Amino acid sequence: MADITRRFGRRHLRSAPTAHIRHHKRGRLTHDGPGLSFWYRSLSAALSEVPVNDRELAMAFHARTADFQDVTVQATVTYRISDPAEAAARIDFSIDPDTGVWRGAPLEQIATLLTETAQQHTLDVLARTPLAAALMDGVAAVRESVATGLAAEPRLPATGIDVVAVRVVAIRPEAEVERALRTPAREQIQQEADRATYERRAVAVERERAIAENELASQIELARREERLVDQRGTNARREAEEKSAADGVRAEAEAARTVRLARAEAEAARETGAARAEAQAAWLRVHAEVDPGTLHALAATRLADNLPRIDSLTLSPDVLTGLLAKLGGPRPEAGA
């Protein structure tokens, strides 16, 4: 929008470089060009402001495919006004000389023209295309058809409009149809996810089985080693018992031999002792046999005296003493001795 100021009953207009200004005074064109700045009288001035920059027009409209499915097309058309004089002559771009505001809605007229033209060519393409093909390849086909149709539209060059680019953003079906179309892909994705889960579980089970087999093999090997250990311990115990038995036998034989030798030695000693005693007894008897009876009696008395208790004093009557001396063959005691 042009910048208009008031000074001393006159108006001053200052436009942007992207706005083409056309100033008519009394039917004659006095100013024509972008980015102008000039003074004018509002009562005698006719002003037009035509934007010459690139403008984006977003559009969305409904269409029906060959299988009678409703779809929504979202597109964007970039255009610019290349001939401001033609555009100002065909479309009302006049502005209020006091405020600088457009008296009409020229950009809406251009938007309606472009939208209806693009919609017409889009409907022509989608009406011959099934829904699946439209969703897969319809974007490129619609973009090409709209670009070709806008370039061949005679009203646009006559209005001074050039189409710079056409972009089709999306072609979307109704929500229920879109959910239905997503279902097979989602089911396939879910199946793939389930298959991956099953495979992961199978791998986990296989690994657990391998671990269990390794543990079982380890237990079997441990049991085998324990069995060998028990056998070895039994063999060692048996060998130890055999060695102990053999040692005990050797020890018993040695003890028996020693006992036999000891018994023989004792018997020999007893025999020799008996023989010595017998020989001594025989010698003793021979000695006693050769000694006279009185001597034997004296020895007997001596032996008897050795074995009797101690007698401090002994009183013998004469009769006893006489008899004793008579037996011993000694002199008789005198009377009164």
Automatic annotation (TrEMBL):
<dbReference type="Pfam" id="PF01145">
    <property type="entry name" value="Band_7"/>
</dbReference>
<protein>
    <submittedName>
        <fullName>SPFH domain-containing protein</fullName>
    </submittedName>
</protein>
<dbReference type="InterPro" id="IPR036013">
    <property type="entry name" value="Band_7/SPFH_dom_sf"/>
</dbReference>
<feature type="region of interest" description="Disordered">
    <location>
        <begin position="232"/>
        <end position="252"/>
    </location>
</feature>
<feature type="domain" description="Band 7">
    <location>
        <begin position="32"/>
        <end position="197"/>
    </location>
</feature>
<dbReference type="InterPro" id="IPR001107">
    <property type="entry name" value="Band_7"/>
</dbReference>
